[in-house]
Amino acid sequence: MRIGVPKETWPGELRTALVPANAKKLIRAGFEIVAESGLGQGAGFSDHDYTEAGVKLQSNHQSVVADADLVLRVRKPSASEVGWLRRGAIQVSFLDPFNERALVDALAEQGVTAISMEMIPRSTRAQKMDALSSQDNLAGYVTVIQAAYHSIKAFPMMMTPSGTIRPCRVFVIGVGVAGLQAIATAKRLGARVEAFDTRPVTAEQVRSLGAKFVEIDLGEVGQTEQGYAKALTEEQIALQKEGQKKVIAESDVVITTAKLFGRPAPRIVSRDMLEAMQPGSVVVDMAVETGGNVEGAVLDQVTEIGGVKVIGQGNLPSQVSRNASEMYSNNLVNLIEEFWDVDNKQMVLDPEDEIIRLAVITRAGEIVNETIRNLNT
Ligand code: NAD
Protein backbone atom coordinates (compact mmCIF):
# COMPACT_ATOMS: atom_id res chain seq x y z
CA MET A 1 0.00 0.00 0.00
CA ARG A 2 1.33 3.41 -0.94
CA ILE A 3 1.05 6.26 1.54
CA GLY A 4 1.25 9.77 0.12
CA VAL A 5 2.11 12.74 2.33
CA PRO A 6 1.82 16.13 0.61
CA LYS A 7 3.18 19.33 2.10
CA GLU A 8 0.58 21.34 4.01
CA THR A 9 -0.79 24.22 1.96
CA TRP A 10 -2.80 25.98 4.71
CA PRO A 11 -1.30 29.47 5.26
CA GLY A 12 1.08 29.47 8.21
CA GLU A 13 0.75 25.75 8.93
CA LEU A 14 4.10 24.48 10.20
CA ARG A 15 3.04 21.00 11.31
CA THR A 16 3.50 17.87 9.29
CA ALA A 17 1.42 14.70 9.31
CA LEU A 18 4.32 12.28 9.26
CA VAL A 19 7.63 12.58 11.08
CA PRO A 20 10.66 10.54 9.92
CA ALA A 21 10.67 8.14 12.89
CA ASN A 22 7.09 7.12 12.13
CA ALA A 23 7.78 6.89 8.40
CA LYS A 24 10.54 4.40 9.21
CA LYS A 25 8.15 2.38 11.35
CA LEU A 26 5.54 2.17 8.58
CA ILE A 27 8.11 1.30 5.93
CA ARG A 28 9.36 -1.52 8.16
CA ALA A 29 5.76 -2.74 8.35
CA GLY A 30 5.67 -2.98 4.54
CA PHE A 31 4.23 0.37 3.40
CA GLU A 32 5.69 2.39 0.58
CA ILE A 33 5.83 6.09 1.43
CA VAL A 34 6.00 8.92 -1.07
CA ALA A 35 6.18 12.42 0.35
CA GLU A 36 6.59 15.91 -1.04
CA SER A 37 10.04 17.45 -0.72
CA GLY A 38 10.20 19.96 2.12
CA LEU A 39 7.52 18.08 4.03
CA GLY A 40 9.03 18.53 7.47
CA GLN A 41 10.60 21.94 6.99
CA GLY A 42 8.24 23.77 9.35
CA ALA A 43 8.78 21.18 12.08
CA GLY A 44 12.56 21.04 11.86
CA PHE A 45 12.92 17.86 9.76
CA SER A 46 15.10 17.91 6.64
CA ASP A 47 14.53 16.02 3.41
CA HIS A 48 17.60 13.99 4.35
CA ASP A 49 15.85 12.84 7.55
CA TYR A 50 13.04 11.45 5.41
CA THR A 51 15.17 9.81 2.73
CA GLU A 52 17.26 8.21 5.46
CA ALA A 53 14.05 6.76 6.89
CA GLY A 54 13.31 5.24 3.47
CA VAL A 55 10.77 7.79 2.20
CA LYS A 56 10.72 8.53 -1.52
CA LEU A 57 10.56 12.28 -2.08
CA GLN A 58 8.89 14.02 -4.99
CA SER A 59 8.53 17.67 -5.79
CA ASN A 60 5.17 17.28 -7.54
CA HIS A 61 2.42 18.01 -5.01
CA GLN A 62 -0.33 16.63 -7.25
CA SER A 63 1.23 13.26 -7.95
CA VAL A 64 1.97 12.68 -4.25
CA VAL A 65 -1.79 12.93 -3.70
CA ALA A 66 -2.99 11.34 -6.93
CA ASP A 67 -0.84 8.20 -6.78
CA ALA A 68 -1.53 7.31 -3.15
CA ASP A 69 -3.80 4.66 -1.68
CA LEU A 70 -3.71 6.43 1.66
CA VAL A 71 -3.13 10.19 2.00
CA LEU A 72 -2.03 11.64 5.33
CA ARG A 73 -2.25 15.31 6.11
CA VAL A 74 -2.90 17.72 8.95
CA ARG A 75 -5.38 20.09 7.31
CA LYS A 76 -8.37 19.40 5.11
CA PRO A 77 -7.66 19.16 1.38
CA SER A 78 -8.71 21.93 -0.98
CA ALA A 79 -11.41 21.31 -3.58
CA SER A 80 -8.81 20.77 -6.33
CA GLU A 81 -6.86 18.33 -4.17
CA VAL A 82 -10.01 16.29 -3.61
CA GLY A 83 -10.35 16.03 -7.38
CA TRP A 84 -6.89 14.43 -7.58
CA LEU A 85 -7.65 11.65 -5.08
CA ARG A 86 -8.05 8.16 -6.42
CA ARG A 87 -11.45 6.51 -6.23
CA GLY A 88 -11.23 4.20 -3.23
CA ALA A 89 -8.30 6.06 -1.68
CA ILE A 90 -8.32 6.75 2.04
CA GLN A 91 -7.67 10.33 3.12
CA VAL A 92 -6.95 11.10 6.78
CA SER A 93 -6.80 14.62 8.22
CA PHE A 94 -8.71 17.17 10.24
CA LEU A 95 -11.76 17.90 8.07
CA ASP A 96 -13.98 20.30 10.01
CA PRO A 97 -16.97 18.27 8.75
CA PHE A 98 -19.59 20.30 10.64
CA ASN A 99 -18.70 23.40 8.64
CA GLU A 100 -17.48 21.92 5.35
CA ARG A 101 -20.52 20.45 3.67
CA ALA A 102 -19.27 21.17 0.14
CA LEU A 103 -15.96 19.47 0.89
CA VAL A 104 -17.69 16.44 2.41
CA ASP A 105 -19.96 16.19 -0.64
CA ALA A 106 -16.93 16.42 -2.95
CA LEU A 107 -15.10 13.66 -1.04
CA ALA A 108 -18.18 11.44 -1.29
CA GLU A 109 -18.56 12.11 -5.01
CA GLN A 110 -14.90 11.32 -5.55
CA GLY A 111 -15.47 7.90 -3.95
CA VAL A 112 -12.92 8.61 -1.22
CA THR A 113 -12.93 7.11 2.26
CA ALA A 114 -12.43 10.25 4.35
CA ILE A 115 -11.44 9.91 7.98
CA SER A 116 -11.91 13.02 10.10
CA MET A 117 -9.51 13.24 13.03
CA GLU A 118 -11.89 15.51 14.98
CA MET A 119 -14.43 12.70 15.00
CA ILE A 120 -12.25 10.08 16.70
CA PRO A 121 -14.23 9.28 19.86
CA ARG A 122 -12.90 10.23 23.31
CA SER A 123 -12.84 6.59 24.47
CA THR A 124 -10.13 4.68 26.28
CA ARG A 125 -9.44 2.55 23.20
CA ALA A 126 -9.17 5.56 20.89
CA GLN A 127 -6.98 7.64 23.21
CA LYS A 128 -3.79 6.86 21.27
CA MET A 129 -5.44 8.20 18.07
CA ASP A 130 -7.00 11.25 19.72
CA ALA A 131 -5.51 14.14 17.77
CA LEU A 132 -7.90 16.70 19.25
CA SER A 133 -6.36 15.95 22.63
CA SER A 134 -2.75 15.78 21.46
CA GLN A 135 -3.05 19.15 19.73
CA ASP A 136 -5.24 20.85 22.36
CA ASN A 137 -2.80 19.84 25.07
CA LEU A 138 -0.03 21.75 23.28
CA ALA A 139 -2.38 24.63 22.44
CA GLY A 140 -3.13 24.99 26.15
CA TYR A 141 0.58 25.25 26.85
CA VAL A 142 1.02 27.88 24.13
CA THR A 143 -1.81 30.08 25.48
CA VAL A 144 0.16 30.57 28.70
CA ILE A 145 3.48 31.18 26.94
CA GLN A 146 1.78 33.84 24.81
CA ALA A 147 0.13 35.42 27.83
CA ALA A 148 3.45 35.50 29.68
CA TYR A 149 5.15 37.08 26.67
CA HIS A 150 2.55 39.84 26.38
CA SER A 151 2.07 40.37 30.12
CA ILE A 152 3.66 43.38 31.81
CA LYS A 153 3.88 41.31 34.99
CA ALA A 154 6.08 38.33 35.83
CA PHE A 155 4.21 35.11 36.68
CA PRO A 156 6.02 33.84 39.82
CA MET A 157 6.28 35.37 43.22
CA MET A 158 9.77 36.79 43.75
CA MET A 159 11.13 37.92 47.10
CA THR A 160 14.17 40.06 46.47
CA PRO A 161 16.09 42.72 48.40
CA SER A 162 14.51 45.25 46.05
CA GLY A 163 11.03 44.20 47.04
CA THR A 164 8.45 41.47 46.67
CA ILE A 165 6.71 40.68 43.42
CA ARG A 166 3.32 39.10 43.92
CA PRO A 167 2.36 36.13 41.76
CA CYS A 168 0.42 36.89 38.62
CA ARG A 169 -3.29 36.01 38.83
CA VAL A 170 -4.47 33.76 36.01
CA PHE A 171 -8.08 32.78 35.36
CA VAL A 172 -8.72 29.87 32.98
CA ILE A 173 -12.25 29.54 31.58
CA GLY A 174 -12.94 26.11 30.07
CA VAL A 175 -11.21 23.15 31.63
CA GLY A 176 -11.04 20.53 28.90
CA VAL A 177 -7.73 19.15 27.63
CA ALA A 178 -6.34 22.60 26.71
CA GLY A 179 -7.59 24.30 29.86
CA LEU A 180 -6.02 21.66 32.11
CA GLN A 181 -2.66 22.11 30.39
CA ALA A 182 -3.01 25.89 30.62
CA ILE A 183 -3.58 25.56 34.37
CA ALA A 184 -0.61 23.22 34.77
CA THR A 185 1.66 25.49 32.72
CA ALA A 186 0.63 28.65 34.58
CA LYS A 187 1.21 26.84 37.89
CA ARG A 188 4.66 25.72 36.73
CA LEU A 189 5.46 29.36 36.02
CA GLY A 190 4.39 30.21 39.55
CA ALA A 191 1.09 31.97 38.91
CA ARG A 192 -1.89 31.94 41.24
CA VAL A 193 -4.52 30.14 39.17
CA GLU A 194 -8.30 30.02 39.26
CA ALA A 195 -10.52 28.21 36.78
CA PHE A 196 -14.12 27.60 35.80
CA ASP A 197 -15.98 25.15 33.58
CA THR A 198 -19.68 24.45 33.16
CA ARG A 199 -19.09 20.71 33.67
CA PRO A 200 -19.06 20.18 37.45
CA VAL A 201 -16.74 17.14 37.13
CA THR A 202 -13.87 19.49 36.30
CA ALA A 203 -13.82 21.06 39.79
CA GLU A 204 -11.85 18.15 41.23
CA GLN A 205 -9.42 18.16 38.27
CA VAL A 206 -8.77 21.87 38.81
CA ARG A 207 -8.08 21.34 42.51
CA SER A 208 -5.79 18.40 41.82
CA LEU A 209 -3.58 20.78 39.81
CA GLY A 210 -3.33 23.13 42.80
CA ALA A 211 -5.67 25.75 41.34
CA LYS A 212 -8.91 27.14 42.75
CA PHE A 213 -12.24 26.27 41.13
CA VAL A 214 -14.55 29.26 40.87
CA GLU A 215 -18.02 28.15 41.95
CA ILE A 216 -20.85 29.56 39.84
CA ASP A 217 -24.30 28.02 40.21
CA LEU A 218 -25.79 27.60 36.73
CA GLY A 219 -28.45 25.07 37.71
CA GLU A 220 -28.70 21.88 35.63
CA VAL A 221 -25.87 21.71 33.02
CA GLY A 222 -24.53 18.19 32.44
CA GLN A 223 -22.53 16.87 29.52
CA THR A 224 -23.08 14.79 26.39
CA GLU A 225 -22.38 11.05 26.16
CA GLN A 226 -18.94 11.81 24.71
CA GLY A 227 -18.19 14.11 27.66
CA TYR A 228 -18.65 17.37 25.73
CA ALA A 229 -20.28 20.40 27.32
CA LYS A 230 -23.91 21.08 26.54
CA ALA A 231 -24.80 24.57 25.30
CA LEU A 232 -26.01 26.90 28.04
CA THR A 233 -29.33 28.73 27.88
CA GLU A 234 -29.34 32.53 27.61
CA GLU A 235 -30.13 32.71 31.32
CA GLN A 236 -27.26 30.40 32.23
CA ILE A 237 -24.81 32.45 30.13
CA ALA A 238 -26.00 35.57 31.99
CA LEU A 239 -25.45 33.78 35.33
CA GLN A 240 -21.97 32.69 34.25
CA LYS A 241 -21.05 36.22 33.18
CA GLU A 242 -22.25 37.64 36.49
CA GLY A 243 -20.42 34.95 38.46
CA GLN A 244 -17.08 35.37 36.73
CA LYS A 245 -17.12 39.18 36.47
CA LYS A 246 -15.28 39.89 39.71
CA VAL A 247 -12.63 37.20 39.12
CA ILE A 248 -11.94 38.57 35.63
CA ALA A 249 -11.61 42.13 36.96
CA GLU A 250 -9.06 40.95 39.54
CA SER A 251 -7.04 38.75 37.15
CA ASP A 252 -3.89 39.80 35.32
CA VAL A 253 -4.37 37.11 32.70
CA VAL A 254 -7.54 35.44 31.44
CA ILE A 255 -7.31 32.40 29.20
CA THR A 256 -10.48 31.17 27.54
CA THR A 257 -10.72 27.69 26.02
CA ALA A 258 -14.51 27.14 26.17
CA LYS A 259 -15.84 25.15 23.23
CA LEU A 260 -18.95 23.25 22.19
CA PHE A 261 -18.33 20.26 19.95
CA GLY A 262 -19.58 20.87 16.41
CA ARG A 263 -21.03 24.28 17.30
CA PRO A 264 -19.75 27.85 17.57
CA ALA A 265 -17.92 28.64 20.82
CA PRO A 266 -19.94 30.43 23.51
CA ARG A 267 -19.39 34.21 23.81
CA ILE A 268 -18.73 34.55 27.53
CA VAL A 269 -16.35 37.47 28.05
CA SER A 270 -17.87 40.81 27.11
CA ARG A 271 -16.29 44.17 26.47
CA ASP A 272 -17.36 45.61 29.83
CA MET A 273 -15.52 42.75 31.58
CA LEU A 274 -12.35 43.59 29.65
CA GLU A 275 -12.72 47.25 30.52
CA ALA A 276 -12.96 46.36 34.22
CA MET A 277 -9.51 44.71 34.13
CA GLN A 278 -6.31 46.58 34.99
CA PRO A 279 -4.60 48.19 31.97
CA GLY A 280 -1.77 45.95 30.78
CA SER A 281 -3.71 42.77 31.54
CA VAL A 282 -3.82 40.04 28.91
CA VAL A 283 -6.65 37.90 27.58
CA VAL A 284 -5.99 34.91 25.33
CA ASP A 285 -8.96 33.58 23.37
CA MET A 286 -8.18 30.03 22.31
CA ALA A 287 -11.64 29.63 20.75
CA VAL A 288 -11.15 32.48 18.29
CA GLU A 289 -11.20 30.13 15.28
CA THR A 290 -14.63 28.76 16.17
CA GLY A 291 -16.36 32.06 16.85
CA GLY A 292 -14.49 33.27 19.91
CA ASN A 293 -15.21 33.40 23.64
CA VAL A 294 -14.17 37.03 23.94
CA GLU A 295 -15.93 40.04 22.45
CA GLY A 296 -13.50 41.95 20.24
CA ALA A 297 -10.98 39.11 19.74
CA VAL A 298 -9.73 39.05 16.15
CA LEU A 299 -8.22 35.98 14.52
CA ASP A 300 -4.42 36.19 14.29
CA GLN A 301 -4.27 39.63 15.87
CA VAL A 302 -3.51 41.25 19.18
CA THR A 303 -6.15 43.91 19.78
CA GLU A 304 -6.21 46.40 22.61
CA ILE A 305 -9.49 46.99 24.40
CA GLY A 306 -9.53 49.41 27.33
CA GLY A 307 -5.78 48.95 27.76
CA VAL A 308 -6.14 45.14 27.82
CA LYS A 309 -4.36 43.08 25.19
CA VAL A 310 -6.68 40.52 23.60
CA ILE A 311 -4.77 37.79 21.81
CA GLY A 312 -6.59 35.98 19.03
CA GLN A 313 -3.76 33.91 17.59
CA GLY A 314 -5.09 30.95 15.60
CA ASN A 315 -3.49 27.54 15.09
CA LEU A 316 -1.70 27.49 18.44
CA PRO A 317 -0.31 23.93 18.10
CA SER A 318 1.65 25.09 15.07
CA GLN A 319 3.66 27.37 17.39
CA VAL A 320 5.25 24.22 18.78
CA SER A 321 5.24 22.50 15.41
CA ARG A 322 7.93 19.95 16.28
CA ASN A 323 6.08 18.39 19.20
CA ALA A 324 2.67 18.91 17.63
CA SER A 325 3.84 17.05 14.49
CA GLU A 326 5.32 14.22 16.54
CA MET A 327 2.12 13.78 18.52
CA TYR A 328 -0.19 14.08 15.51
CA SER A 329 1.96 11.68 13.52
CA ASN A 330 1.81 9.21 16.42
CA ASN A 331 -1.99 9.50 16.38
CA LEU A 332 -2.06 8.68 12.65
CA VAL A 333 0.31 5.73 12.92
CA ASN A 334 -1.68 4.34 15.84
CA LEU A 335 -4.81 4.63 13.70
CA ILE A 336 -3.18 2.85 10.77
CA GLU A 337 -1.81 0.07 12.99
CA GLU A 338 -5.19 -0.41 14.67
CA PHE A 339 -6.92 -1.10 11.35
CA TRP A 340 -4.11 -2.67 9.32
CA ASP A 341 -4.58 -6.29 8.35
CA VAL A 342 -1.01 -7.59 8.39
CA ASP A 343 -1.77 -10.83 6.50
CA ASN A 344 -3.79 -9.32 3.67
CA LYS A 345 -1.86 -6.04 3.61
CA GLN A 346 -4.91 -3.82 3.61
CA MET A 347 -6.83 -1.46 5.84
CA VAL A 348 -9.93 -3.06 7.30
CA LEU A 349 -12.44 -0.35 8.17
CA ASP A 350 -15.36 -2.26 9.62
CA PRO A 351 -18.43 0.04 9.68
CA GLU A 352 -19.56 -1.73 12.86
CA ASP A 353 -16.40 -0.68 14.70
CA GLU A 354 -17.15 2.28 16.99
CA ILE A 355 -14.13 4.34 15.91
CA ILE A 356 -14.82 3.73 12.21
CA ARG A 357 -18.53 4.43 12.59
CA LEU A 358 -17.78 7.82 14.11
CA ALA A 359 -14.60 8.91 12.30
CA VAL A 360 -15.24 7.81 8.71
CA ILE A 361 -17.26 10.56 7.05
CA THR A 362 -17.51 9.41 3.42
CA ARG A 363 -17.08 6.06 1.76
CA ALA A 364 -17.92 4.50 -1.61
CA GLY A 365 -19.76 7.58 -2.85
CA GLU A 366 -21.83 8.15 0.31
CA ILE A 367 -21.72 10.28 3.44
CA VAL A 368 -21.70 7.40 5.90
CA ASN A 369 -21.35 9.33 9.15
CA GLU A 370 -24.86 9.70 10.52
CA THR A 371 -24.32 12.98 12.38
CA ILE A 372 -22.77 14.69 9.38
CA ARG A 373 -25.26 13.22 6.92
CA ASN A 374 -28.18 14.55 8.96
CA LEU A 375 -26.77 18.05 9.45
CA ASN A 376 -29.17 20.76 8.23
CA THR A 377 -31.53 18.24 6.69
P1 NAD B 1 -13.74 21.10 24.28
O1 NAD B 1 -12.53 21.56 23.55
O2 NAD B 1 -14.94 20.68 23.54
O3 NAD B 1 -14.19 22.31 25.27
C1 NAD B 1 -13.27 22.86 26.18
C2 NAD B 1 -13.95 23.04 27.51
O4 NAD B 1 -14.86 24.12 27.44
C3 NAD B 1 -14.77 21.86 28.00
O5 NAD B 1 -14.26 21.38 29.22
C4 NAD B 1 -16.17 22.41 28.13
O6 NAD B 1 -16.88 21.85 29.22
C5 NAD B 1 -15.87 23.87 28.36
N1 NAD B 1 -16.99 24.82 28.17
C6 NAD B 1 -17.98 24.82 27.24
N2 NAD B 1 -18.79 25.88 27.43
C7 NAD B 1 -18.29 26.57 28.47
C8 NAD B 1 -18.66 27.77 29.13
N3 NAD B 1 -19.75 28.47 28.77
N4 NAD B 1 -17.91 28.19 30.16
C9 NAD B 1 -16.83 27.50 30.59
N5 NAD B 1 -16.42 26.36 29.99
C10 NAD B 1 -17.15 25.91 28.96
O7 NAD B 1 -13.36 20.00 25.35
P2 NAD B 1 -12.26 18.85 25.21
O8 NAD B 1 -11.00 19.30 25.81
O9 NAD B 1 -12.25 18.40 23.80
O10 NAD B 1 -12.86 17.74 26.15
C11 NAD B 1 -14.18 17.25 25.88
C12 NAD B 1 -14.49 16.07 26.77
O11 NAD B 1 -13.79 14.93 26.35
C13 NAD B 1 -14.14 16.25 28.23
O12 NAD B 1 -15.14 15.65 29.00
C14 NAD B 1 -12.85 15.50 28.38
O13 NAD B 1 -12.62 15.07 29.70
C15 NAD B 1 -13.14 14.35 27.46
N6 NAD B 1 -11.94 13.66 27.00
C16 NAD B 1 -11.89 12.31 27.17
C17 NAD B 1 -10.80 11.62 26.71
C18 NAD B 1 -10.75 10.14 26.88
O14 NAD B 1 -11.46 9.61 27.69
N7 NAD B 1 -9.96 9.45 26.12
C19 NAD B 1 -9.77 12.28 26.06
C20 NAD B 1 -9.86 13.67 25.89
C21 NAD B 1 -10.98 14.35 26.35
Automatic annotation (TrEMBL):
Sequence ranges assigned to domain Alanine dehydrogenase/pyridine nucleotide transhydrogenase NAD(H)-binding in this UniProt record: 148-312
GO molecular function, one term: NADP binding
Role according to the record: The transhydrogenation between NADH and NADP is coupled to respiration and ATP hydrolysis and functions as a proton pump across the membrane.
PANTHER family: NAD(P) TRANSHYDROGENASE, PROTON-TRANSLOCATING NAD(P)(+) TRANSHYDROGENASE
Pfam families for this protein: AlaDh_PNT_C, AlaDh_PNT_N
Gene name for this UniProt entry: pntAA
Species name: Novipirellula galeiformis
Family: Belongs to the AlaDH/PNT family.
Residue span(s) of domain Alanine dehydrogenase/pyridine nucleotide transhydrogenase N-terminal: 4-139
Principal EC category: translocase
Catalytic activity: NAD(+) + NADPH + H(+)(in) = NADH + NADP(+) + H(+)(out)
Name of this chain's protein: proton-translocating NAD(P)(+) transhydrogenase
